[in-house]
Amino acid sequence: MAKKWFKRSPKTPPVKNPASALTPWEAYQQQQKQAQTADKAQREPTIEHKLPRLKALRHKHLMRRLAFLLTILGLILLIAGYFVSPLSKVKLLSVTTDHQSVLSEQTVIDASGIKTTDTLVGVLLQQHTITKRLQAREPKIKAATVAVHGLRNVELQIKTYKTVGLLMRGERYYPILANGTIAKDSLTQPTNNYSVYSQFKTGNKLQQMIKQYRRLPATVRNGISEIKFAPTKINPQRVHLYMNDGNQVYATIATFAKKMQYYPSIAKEMKKKGTVNLEVGAYSYPF
């Protein structure tokens, strides 16, 4: 009987476990990493878990935005209501002036242009304009301040220029202020023992005379009754003074303050009332 030979199929090598090729320490580390990855996957919330939180967050943001809009709307309504209500209007308007001021309270109020129908906010925003208006309409006002007391009371605090004399025009007397400005209001008779300036025109001569006059001591100023501008061809700056003690003085504007301060000593030596000439030198002679 013939023998049959069967060809052996090659044996498939056994599949090796990758972990069997690792050292025990490396295998341990790999197991730890796999465990951490699985644990992390379990802890991460799924989309089903995230949806309720997203809805709550959106609702919270919506409520905050709504509250903000309602607050802004409420403020707008309050402001609008304030301006419509009588609380926004000026209730009381008062005037405070320095001790030397001769301005009446109503004169200052009229010059300010403020009315009780004006809003308090409008007055505060136009403080600079109001002070400029006061100074422009009333030359006696040197400085002005707008102050608010309480909720609706406005006070005008005024400082005025000092009156240094009276300018005679015709039969009227106009106050001359310390800054050289002529006030608009006039008097029929001179008051407060002010020196009267006559024959002067508003210009350089009057301004120079006022500056010279203010440099004199108060005792000398108070003794002058009238200063009359009386120029000549020889002396175009000559002034003629009438003194309260009965004497008369001739002087020059440019040297008036320098020479007039010696008048008290000259008048004391005069035995009779007369004229003192200070134009060139200083001498006197009786009437």
Automatic annotation (TrEMBL):
Chief localization: membrane
Membrane-protein topology: Single-pass type II membrane protein
Membrane-crossing residue ranges in chain numbering: 66-84
Gene Ontology BP annotations: cell division
Location in the cell: Cell membrane
InterPro entries: Cell_div_FtsQ/DivIB_C (IPR005548), DivIB (IPR026580), FtsQ_DivIB (IPR050487)
Known role: Cell division protein that may be involved in stabilizing or promoting the assembly of the division complex.
Protein name: Cell division protein DivIB
